[in-house]
Amino acid sequence: MKQEPQKDVQGGETPEPQPAPKTPEEPTQVLRPEDEALVAERLRDLGYIE
Amino acid sequence: MQAKPNIILITADSLRANHLSSYGYPLPTSPHIDSMACQGVLMEKMFAAGIPTQPSHTTIFTGEHAVKHGVVAHGGKAKLARGTPFLPEILLEDGYTTCAVDTLFRERIWFGRGYEYIIDPSLHHLFYASVTQEELNARAFQWIETVPKTKPFFMFIHYWDVHYPYTPPDRLRGLFYPGGNPTDPDNHALDEWWDHPVGAMAHDSWLRTSNGLITDPNYVTALYDREIRYLDEGLAALQHTLERLGMADNTLIMLLADHGESMTDHRICYDHYGLYDCVLRVPMVIRWPAGKLRTGMRFAPFRQLTDVTPTLLEAAGSDLPEDLDGNSFLPQLRGEEEPTGYDRILGLESTWQAKYCLRNSRYKFILARQPDLLGNPDRELYDLEADPGEDHNLTTEEPKLAAEMEKELESWIAERLEAAGRTKDPVVEEGAVAIKIWQDHRA
After folding, report:
1. How confident is the model over B28-43, as pLDDT tens digits?
2. ipTM of the assembly?
3. Predicted TM-score of the model (pTM)
4. Partners of B212 in the beta sheet?
5. Under 8 Å between Cβ of B222 and B179
6. Which of B92, B101, B87, B103 minimizes the C-alpha distance to B138?
7. Residue B243 backbone phi and psi in degrees, to 5
8. A contact test, residue of B27, B124, B127 with most A CBs within 10 A
9. Do residues B333 and B415 touch, judged by C-beta distance below 8 A?
10. Å between B94 CA and nearest CA of chain A
11. Looking at residue B355, what is its pLDDT?
12. Can you tell me the distance from the alpha carbon of B342 to that of A22, in angstroms, rounded to the nearest whole number?
């Protein structure tokens, strides 16, 4: 089970993300209050939240 | 400088390890977390003991496996025994000022134990998981700035950004989507998900857009990855605040997840059940400059979330309660000992499915206590070296190995139950607590 630690952390110099070209279909996602209420109601029915 | 460190324990709910750049993800979702890993230690093979949120957090704060503490289901009947040692209670008794920026205490009372302060901005939302890192950070930073510096503090921050609903800020639009039509009405890849109550909920709420229903799984995954990126920004802001206050060196930050997330793996869509590695394996990164941790270390042996409480208690100079399931790995983080871990781990779930798993470095065996609703066999065996995606069930090809692992798993469960003084298997007692709702939904 014993193992020497490795020191070569990968990904330490992560580049800034470059936004992909927006496709014409990139939609606008909006969680409206009534949507959030629906999520809460459904999860309450599931017993996931009180 | 005070002798004892400040400790900030951070849970990023539903954060899947291999969607972080430092865990090999090809997209730049996590530049700050990667930077933390360079300055501290990254745990390569950390596993949850029980999933999802309530079982896993109970293990995180008790150092006990779910088989022992008995909280095996999210929304189940079991309660944590009052006498069970609880991390913030111990730290409070040992002189820490304790604060939770969290909502879990609203669901299960034991999650409020030991906190002198509880801050819960999710009260401004109808569903608590809609609270953002910016809302949590605004309160957390204010508390850190004003808490008396005569004593060390312990703060628990529970971020929900990565948990569904995936609704990242609009300014991150365009990131991580390979292209296509997110709302193509002819794409039926997610149709089976609508038969699941959580999928139906998504269908009726957060997947709706100005262009219609999101139907492309790649786009849903991009939304998840954007939430990681958003969380990462919040973690960077926390680090900057500690540096500005001159507290960064002697503050131990432990970032982890309670469980991962299944994208569409194994026909489990954007949720956290199934004992596959996409959910069972969790990220963990630890940073504590004054604690003289090895920097840039990738800790390779198997560890479980049972080890969180003993490790943090040792860092605080506290005595460890007797009979914890977990073990501190602090001396190994400091280089005082060689890294060691477990040769096998036990996992369980009792929410959407009632199952156990036994995982070693090569194989995983999954055993169902009751049939699941996806039609999986009651026994699954995977060779994780040859099949890391756990796609090819070997129980028919390797019946002897499957039988051996089943026997080992049952023996281990029996030993744990006996040690915990339990006469009944808690996964059998609870069953899959949400399965009837799923059945009713399908009907």
Report:
1. 999 999 999 999 999 9
2. 0.77
3. 0.94
4. B209
5. no
6. B101
7. -65, -45
8. B127
9. no
10. 32
11. 98
12. 46
CA distance B147 to chain A (A): 31
The CA-to-CA distance between both ends of chain A, in Å, stands at 43
Q: Give me the DSSP letters along B261-274.
A: -BSSGGG--SB--S
Mind telling me how many Å the CA of A12 is from chain B's nearest CA?
5
Provide mean pLDDT across the span B379-400.
98
Residues in chain A: 50
Which residue in B has a C-alpha nearest to residue A45's C-alpha? B437
Tell me the mean pLDDT in the region B314-328: 96
Q: Tell me, what amino acid is at B216?
A: D
The structure tokens listed for B209 are 């857009």
Judge if the upstream peptide bond of residue B165 is cis by omega within 30 degrees of 0.
yes
Quote the CA–CA distance of B175 and B230 in Å, as a whole number. Answer: 11
Tokens of B417: 């139950």
Q: Which chain A residue's Cα is nearest to B171?
A: A19
- Eight-state DSSP code of residue B319: P
- pLDDT at residue B305 is higher than 50: yes
Q: What backbone torsions phi and psi does residue B431 show, to the nearest 5 degrees?
A: 65, -170
Give the whole-angstrom CA distance, residue B311 versus residue B263: 31
Q: Which of A28, A45, A38, A16 is nearest to B164 (CA)?
A: A38
Using the structure block, give the residue that is written with the tokens 């921050």: B157
CA B385/CA B266 separation, integer angstroms: 18
Of B40, B6, B42, B5, nearest to B21 by C-alpha is B42
CA B261, CA B25: separation in Å to the nearest integer?
Answer: 14
**A46, A49, A50: which to substitute to probe chain B, counting the most B Cβ within 10 Å?**
A46
The CB-side HSE value for B404 (13 A sphere, CA atoms) comes to 8
Q: Indicate the SS3 state at residue B102.
A: coil
Q: How many Å apart are CA B299 and CA B32, to the nearest integer?
A: 19
Q: Do B107 and A21 touch (CB under 8 A)?
A: no
> What is the set of domains in chain B, with CATH numbers?
6-342 (3.40.720.10), 345-442 (3.30.1120.10)
**Given an 8 Å threshold on Cβ–Cβ distance, is B183 in contact with A27?**
yes
HSE-up of B201 (CA within 13 Å, CB side)? 24
Catalogue the E-assigned strands of B29-179: 41-47, 50-51, 97-101, 117-119, 153-159
Q: Which helix (H) or strand (E) holds B284?
A: strand B284-287
